[in-house]
Fold each of these.
Amino acid sequence: MILPIRAYGDPVLKKQAEDIEKDHPDIQELIENMFDTMYGASGVGLAAPQVGRSVRLFIVDASPFAEPDDDGNVDPDSVGLEDFKKVFINPEIVDEEGEEWGFEEGCLSIPTIREEVIRQPELKIKYLNEKFEEQEEKFDGIAARIIQHEFDHLEGVLFTDHLNPLRRRLLKRKLSDIARGIVEVKYKMKFPIRK
């Protein structure tokens, strides 16, 4: 089932999410609904707070990055992403390293805005998969960036929080419009302030 994605300004997006217990009700249904919602919005990642659930869960499917462009070329940075589909429950970033790099990010909760965000290219993360099995893995490049972006949602951090104060000030009107629902989107959203 496709759920409405919470728009910028919704308090759930700025709240630190809570851990999930193994007996958490309907967790498998939530995961399934989140994948339906993410695919319906053409996203590559989605965190539970974005669908109004303040729990430490996010999903990723980076396979769209591995698709060839109109000329049939595949970005060398996206090699290995064709099968990068995962569920992260109660994740904990253990380490981040490497020379920081910029990449233009967007967010389903902040439609129409894309900005360069600086992040470290490598990370080590501990988490539980959808079967509640403990995992510890290293990721780099675009995979690491998607994880960092979605992990931020669990901490109540949006990609716009990484921008310098001047850039945030310049985006203030657009962000306010998004919160009020003055934005064109092709997926279901819930706006904190209706126009």
Amino acid sequence: MTDSRQITKLLWTGGWDSTFRLLQLLLSEKKIVQPYYLKFPSEKTDIAELPVRKSTEKELRVMQAIRNRLIENYSHTKELLLPLKIFDASVVVPDKKIVKSFSKIVQSKYIGKQYVWLASFAKQYHLKNLEMGIEAEGNTKQVIEPFIKRKGKTYLVNDRYSSRPEHILFNYFSFPILEYSKRDMAEISEKENWTELMKMTWFCHRPYFGKFPCGSCNPCVNAYEDGMGWRIPLFFRIFGRIFKTLYHAKVVIKLRNSLS
């Protein structure tokens, strides 16, 4: 029987950051990993505040493909990588204190609404030290950085700030790759021969035909800004940016409002 104290709990989405951490754990540290995935709906539901992710099925396929390739190339990972635990976000009850804390934070800084559901999920299922792939150059690091402490090789929100909204929202998680940018991860992956696996990762929230990055959603825009635009096919790089510019043009906003 596996000792649960020796298992690293990881939020895995099949994305660049969380997959990089997965590879560190499995291939460098030889740790047993229990991956968790919070499944957001791909279409709008009766729960108005629940984020929609048209990429959900794509992410699940990518994670399975990465698992298969890992086992094929590194046979020891078959024992180390435990079956993915999938939880439906629609059964998560948003915690009132967490919702209030998120609302306070976004009055001055931007972070995604998914953190309400992730924190509420962790609280509802009594999860602590759940590893989250927050990287060095993202908005979320700027939010938590004044309130974190280093513990071993990872970072946690310091309990001395227990009354702060940042602690209430993020105290369920640890942040082991907080010092790495996406470029850092790319360089390490090349050195460690992980590039093939990292290229299998996914990031776009609104893929065309369930296959191609849209080039216009926030993760796609972040890919451009992080120097990772090569991950988006040229056509969608051009089309996505044009679409986003037109969609947010004042005349188009006025037209959309008149039709709604």
Amino acid sequence: MLRRMSTSRRYSPSSDHAAIAVLAAEQHGVVSRAQLRRARLSTAAIDNRVKTGRLLALHRGVYAVGHRPATNHAQAMAAVLACGPHAVLSHRSAAALWRMGVAWRTPLDVTSPSGHRIPGVLAHRCRVFEATREFGIPVTTPVRTLLDLAGTVDDAMLIRAVNEARLAGRLPPHDFAALVERMPRRLERLLAPHGAPTRSILEDEFLRFVRR
């Protein structure tokens, strides 16, 4: 008598490991529970990995795979994942990711439509914002980053961030013009008279000295 072979999906630790590895490789070693469930890992399989230390909790429902994140990019990805599917890195943290002359610091800034408060994250609420990806991390666009930054930093840091973005080619002429148009009173009095971006804080300070 022949037995029928079962066509149901059998549990395979190796397939689960592969699914986690693929996600982690794309996200700086960080994954969320929601992503693991969409990859068809069972709740039991996820909980077992948390219990045995193969997944390390960073935020509620967000894990590092195998070891604590050692880079700013990994920490940024974890903060964004913790704030929901539509969250993005923003403000000073976005400026740091875009390398606009702003240093990384904690808590990390994240903007989302809900603005849910997450321990260790400085949450901002906004329903509509321009976003993209850099190093695989959801982040506000350079123009939006500078607009957000303008509300939190002094003139010296803002103009340095604008000039670093221009030097790196992150503000092409049409984006730069749009930025100045959206906050003309502040930027027009800060930019170099000849319109070219300055290359250092010393140049910025010299221009301020000349104006005085």
Amino acid sequence: MSVKPKQPIALITGANQGIGAAIAKKLAAQNCAVLISYFRLPNHMPPDAPTDKAGQALHDAQRATDASAVVDAIRAAGGQAEMVEIDLAKPENIPTLMNHVETAFGGAPHILVNNAAAWKVDMLRPQATDEDHTQEAYRQHHLFTAASHDFHFAVNSRAAVLLMVELAKRNTSGWGRIINLSTGGAAGFPGEVSYGASKAALESYSRAAAQELGYLGITVNVIVPGPTQTGWITEDLAQDFTQRTALGRVGHPDDIANAVSLLCSEDAAWITGQVIHANGGFR
């Protein structure tokens, strides 16, 4: 039987804000040494974005910050944390990131949380209909292209899988946890087709990884957050989501961090290959 290390080393990607930041703080509070990776992306919203996308502005602003505030908060609470900015869309950066973990904490990570996500709107329908209130200029700006496909899959599936492979090669402890973050739109996401498809691919890779890495004592699971307030949910959206959620509110980053914490615990040692919806009954 594999034994959890006294101080597990955790790598959390995309943890400079939102859900990733909450996960980093939660695991650090549970005696994990945490390395936070992040990559600051430009604002994805064009100047002619319709008003119903205005809530994205705050979210984009948060994504453009570094992780120093998260690291400082962890250290102030007595935890261990380091950070590195790195572009996961470049395959050559995957071993480099793992090297950062080993340099920072003297060993390979035991826990990998693939939270980083590339996101842009892209859609298949080239023309608006009478019932479609999306601005035509916005639609044309976000048509599906080879570039929009590759932008999503490079980070949301390929990088996550390469990190899983790298962890499996380097973690020789006999104990490991991999948690991948997906989306409720993975089965098909109109208007965000490549984002949804890339997360569906990640879910498939995760189920395969659970089978293939089990002999190493590594469990692999997927968490699907419901609508979670990380800056993008406007008041109108919050009201709609609340009405559609069994527990009567939108999610908070700590809700997802708690689910990750559970899967990293010994209580979850017999859980692997699962896609778990942490959404307050939204689905």
